[in-house]
Design a protein that fits this description.
The structure holds 2 protein chains of 2 kinds.
Chain A (H helix, E strand, L loop, with lengths): L1 E10 L3 E11 L4 E6 L5 H9 L7 E10 L2 E2 L5 H7 L1 E4 L11 H8 L8 H11 L1 H5 L10 H13 L5 E5 L7 H16 L3 E6 L2 H7 L2 E6 L2 E7 H6 L1 H31 L1
Parallel strand pairs in A: 3-8, 3-9, 6-7, 7-8
Antiparallel strand pairs in A: 1-2, 1-4, 4-5, 9-10
Chain B lengths: L1 H31 L6 H18 L4 H24 L7 H23 L14 E4 L2 E4 H23 L1 H11 L1 H6 L4 H24 L10 H4 L2 H8 L4 H25 L11 H12 L14
Antiparallel strand pairs in B: 1-2
The chains are: A alpha/beta, B mainly alpha.
The structure holds adenosine-5'-triphosphate (ATP) and magnesium ion.
Chain lengths: 261, 298
């Protein structure tokens, strides 16, 4: 089990972004973490994977455990080696490298003998990538890039896979496809923590869901219950259909600002 | 005709040592976004150690060259660890200033070690000339070209084919992604400095085996790497190679023919040529012949 307990995170020593978060991903499950822009979802993932310090963030309290062993003091490479992989928000594929090179980067920590098998496995799961293995990754479509990002994380054979908004900016049909692939990956034995704003998609495959608002978990229930909850329907499922476009605009604006700073 | 070819080959010889230095700049720049002004000092120290290993330790020449390259790789990686690593996250400009500080420190060190002497690195090539398709060329020029190109090719293959080389390229493109895939990014920074230091040592050796030997002031020759990386593009290894050769040849042509065809530019105009080319490039194509026009990342 991957668990986060009472986590408090600050950026720049003063900006308190996570105010005591607890959540857990039992082995073999898909768990959804939902929340609006700026709730702190990505920060949770950074805290788990040792990526806080390059964002000038720091864990103030609490801990992250993997099978009861603390892992929050590990740096990013050691976290990967411990079996926690992640697909970062915005796909972040290496656009100038080929598809296969992107995948091989994902295998950096893996034993050399496993690389070929894992390449084959990824190409079987994502046949589009097999067709394009020598092409420059930047030319892939958005959906293909998302698949590449997921495939890259799988190259390290993670036991737990953290996905940060894999549906972001993709057409509904492609979102469906990504959703099915997540289920498939889960069935092959990888536990999944799925961060999403697309609550519909996430709750349709998760067994359990957490809803975050400004650094706190405000709801923590089985996915089936959340799907039927009036408030959730109104705020997350409903909002999606009407306000999706404007939502995304806000988000891009925000992200630019953050990159430049 | 024969004279022209000899001039060209001399230019290619000098140019390939510039290319070596420039490739070192580019590797550090790509991995860390830092322009490394300490490179010339690394070159001088490289020549110093080659000389030390040949004359004071008594190593055979090729062994001494490799030992000097390893020495400089270590010194260079340590420099990165001590002086540059704390600058990670600071603006690249600030880090570049630190490398300038490192240059001064290493340069003073080189002055202490070398003194006012001229060190000779050894003379494996002498003034021998050999026949190349019926043209008499200096062996040293051929040595410069062949050794530089082999070294650069080895680095290129390493970056292209090996697991660590791929990790270095990933680091150059997106540090956070590299980290998230389990690459130890700090180690890649150190490695880029180590490679760059070894290449600088090699170019120092090649310059040192020329007639003049090496004095600390030869560091200023290394400044020609600057026009080379501007012409080639800061982020292109291929570009550095072509640009190094172009600048070397331009210089050598100017030296040979400017007094005949353009007497009004005066003597020693060849010294200015690389910088004239640099200014021209900056005006017309600021990202160089092979560089990427301002990499966009959203
Ligand atoms: N490096 C940083 N320095 C300072 N504040 C930050 C930094 N990164 C994020 N924040 C702030 O922390 C809060 C949570 O950000 P986070 O990216 O974790 O949210 P999120 O839930 O992932 O949002 P989104 O849905 O937009 O991705 C936001 O208010 C954000 O502005
Ligand atoms: Mg986020």
């Amino acid at each position: 089990m991957l668990a986060v307990e009472n986590l408090e995170v600050v950026y720049e020593d003063v900006i308190l972004v996570l105010k005591g978060i607890s959540l857990s991903v039992p082995e073999g499950s898909i768990v959804a973490l939902l929340g609006a822009n700026g709730a702190g979802k990505t920060t949770v993932l950074r805290a788990i994977t040792g990526l806080l310090d390059i964002h000038r963030g720091e864990i103030r309290k609490g801990k992250v455990t993997l099978d009861d062993k603390e892992i929050h003091h590990l740096d990013a490479p050691k976290t990967v080696a411990a079996g926690v992989g992640q697909v970062m928000e915005g796909r972040r594929i290496l656009t100038e490298l080929s598809v296969e090179e992107n995948l091989r980067v994902g295998a950096h920590t893996a034993a050399r003998g496993t690389v070929q098998d894992n390449l084959d496995r990824v190409f079987t799961t994502f046949p589009v990538l097999a067709d394009r293995r020598r092409s420059v990754a930047g030319y892939l479509s958005g959906g293909e890039q998302q698949m590449l990002a997921i495939g890259r994380a799988l190259m390290a054979e993670p036991r737990y896979l953290l996905l940060d908004e894999p549906s972001l900016g993709l057409a509904p049909l492609i979102v469906q496809q990504i959703r099915d692939l997540i289920v498939e990956i889960n069935e092959q034995g990888t536990s999944v923590l799925l961060v999403e704003q697309n609550a519909n998609m996430a709750l349709s495959i998760a067994s359990h869901g957490y809803i975050m608002e400004t650094g706190k978990i405000v709801m923590d229930k089985p996915a089936a219950v959340l799907r039927d909850d009036e408030d959730v329907r109104e705020f997350y499922l409903g909002l999606r259909e009407e306000g999706a476009a404007s939502f995304r605009d806000v988000k891009h604006y925000k992200r630019r600002k953050r990159w430049l700073s | 005709m024969e004279a022209l070819i000899a001039v060209l080959i001399r230019g290619l010889g000098v140019g390939s040592t510039y290319a070596l230095l420039a490739v070192g700049f580019v590797i550090i720049y790509r991995a860390t976004d830092v322009v490394n002004f300490a490179q010339p000092a690394l070159m001088i120290l490289g020549a110093y150690y080659t000389s030390l290993y040949v004359f004071n330790v008594g190593m055979p020449f090729p062994v001494a060259v490799i030992a000097a390259m390893i020495t400089m790789a270590v010194i260079s990686a340590l420099t990165e660890r001590i002086a540059l690593r704390p600058m990670v996250g600071e603006p690249p400009f600030a880090a570049a200033m630190v490398t300038f500080g490192v240059f001064v420190v290493l340069f003073i060190l080189a002055f202490r070690l070398i003194g006012t002497n001229v060190i000779v690195v050894g003379d494996p090539w002498g003034l021998e000339r050999i026949d190349l398709f019926g043209i008499r060329v200096n062996q040293i020029d051929l040595a410069k070209i062949v050794i530089s190109m082999i070294a650069i090719a080895v680095v290129g293959v390493f970056l292209k084919r090996s697991r660590v080389g791929l990790a270095m390229r990933a680091t150059a493109l997106d540090q956070e992604v590299a980290l998230a895939q389990g690459v130890n990014v700090g180690r890649m920074f150190g490695l880029s400095w180590a490679i760059s230091g070894a290449l600088a040592a090699l170019s120092g050796m090649l310059i040192g085996t020329a007639a003049g030997g090496v004095t600390p002031l030869v560091a200023f020759v290394a400044l020609k790497a600057l026009p080379v990386i501007i012409l080639g593009g800061l982020d292109s290894i291929q570009g550095s190679v072509y640009a190094g050769l172009i600048i070397g040849v331009a210089e050598s042509l100017t030296r040979a023919y400017s007094s005949t065809y353009f007497p009004w530019v005066g003597s020693n105009f060849d010294i200015v040529v690389p910088y004239a080319i640099m200014i021209l490039v900056l005006m017309i194509r600021p990202y160089g012949l092979f560089g990427t026009p301002e990499v966009q990342r959203v």
